[in-house]
Amino acid sequence: MIVLNWLAFLIALVVVAVSWGLYTYQPELLLGTPWGPVHVGVLLAGSFALGVLVMALYALAWWIGLRRTLGRQGRELRQVRNEVETLKRAQTQEVSAAPGPDQQP
């Protein structure tokens, strides 16, 4: 996980460096948008940020689904354990009431 964190950090640094380099060394790289001309470096950084935001939303949805699934499985596991304990108690009561080999008539 540490390697993935460093890789994500390095990719973000590269995007920032490329955006800054384009913005600084190529000031004429403008694209027309409905809001007026926007520099390609700004569009690159903005699209990267939008991609990170969408990825974070997917990760959040996955985490919420995982928590829901784990909660459901935990409830089912507790229910099964309670049923097993109930059956064990019932079986011990039955076994203790049965006569042993030395108690035969």
From TrEMBL:
Domain Lipopolysaccharide assembly protein A residues, every copy: 37-85
UniProt keyword annotation of Zinc present: no
Keyword Membrane applies: yes
GO cellular component, one term: plasma membrane
InterPro entries: LapA_dom (IPR010445)
Keywords: Cell membrane, Membrane, Transmembrane, Transmembrane helix
Record-annotated membrane-spanning stretches: 7-26, 38-65
Pfam hit, one: LapA_dom
UniProt protein name: Lipopolysaccharide assembly protein A domain protein
Organism annotation: Calidithermus roseus
